[in-house]
Amino acid sequence: MQSLAAFEFDELLKKTTALLLTAGIKDLMLATSRFILEKVYSAMLMGGVTKRLRVMAIIDEAHKLCGEGTVTALIKEARKYAMGVILSPQETRDFHPSVFANTGTLVGLAREEEDANVMSRYMGLTDKTERTQAKGLLLNQANGHALIRSQHFLPYAQVKILSFEDKIRRNGKS
Fold first, then answer.
1. Which of 117, 113, 88, 91 is nearest to 103 (CA)?
2. Domain 18-103 has what CATH class?
């Protein structure tokens, strides 16, 4: 008889799966996170190069894994293997510079001084005045606003992010 806790790892990649790691034992959660990322990375490599999105990984509290080489390696190769990665850290200064260099879209919410410096530096702004303006926006953004830099928003755009409820109200649905 098969245990209820047993599963094939590949099954996690075939459907929407959320893994909530809240054991409270920091080293155990980090080891588990690293193991899962290594497995996802291996599956990505085994799947070969493609342009069709296969996996989207969202890592909350990403600052806890920022020093880990697996995250950096994953970011460097994710697009080539059709993997999307969303990293949500507490502080942008925790990321290795190659994470920024290999990021297609940066979303910067309100930041404090040091993180606003990092974010404005990695937004691809070469003009000092633009960098200073971006930093000022990051320091003074209201809740629900973000700076976005991507191939569609160059050098960046400041946007208001609507909540799901606000979007429904705006579209006239109840």
1. 88
2. alpha beta
Q: Which residues of 65-87 are buried (b: 16+ CB within 10 A; e: fewer)?
A: bbebebbbebbeebeebbbebeb
Residue pair 103/85 in contact (Cβ under 8 Å)? The answer is no
Q: pTM for this structure?
A: 0.79
Structure tokens of 34?
């690293």
How is residue 19 written in tokens? 């893994």
In tens, the pLDDT along 33-76 reads 888 888 888 888 888 998 888 888 888 888 777 766 777 888 88
Structure tokens at 47: 């799947």
**In which residue ranges of the chain is CATH 3.40.50.300 found?**
18-103
